[in-house]
Amino acid sequence: LIEPPEEPMESRRPGFEVPLQCAPRLPRLLAATPDGVLVLLATAMFGWIFFKITATVPPLRQLMVLVLSGLGIAWVGYQYLLLVYTGTTPGLGIAGLRLSRFDGSRVPRRIRRWRVLASVLSGVSFGLGYAWCVLDEDQLSWHDRITRTYLAPRTRVTRSNPTD
Prior knowledge:
6 helices, single chain, mainly alpha, 2 strands, about 5% strand
């Protein structure tokens, strides 16, 4: 036969291709804002202390390289420490987002570590990994696809009254 045999209805799994309930791009960008401000303040404070101790200011070009590399290292360190060891950042908490796996389960520490490392790949490729979410049907970036995790809206846990 040219056509494949038709599957019986009971052997099909319902909901197998359920689209992800990924957070829209705007809340994800808003979640990065408080984190970016914290990293910027920490880097500025480090730079101020460093230049107070050394009492020299390098040429502008060298200063820009130092500032940008300091910001990059601080951002990766911030993301690594907070995402790997706590599972969230202040920005994610403020925006009401959480990290989730494609199957909806909790994200183990090992996967969170790989997510941060994969996000470095998304960033060092001139931001193409982050820009990929514009083209992706589920609005996911490279590091989301690599680790099979995504940012989802946090579900509210309602506590029932034990006396009911």
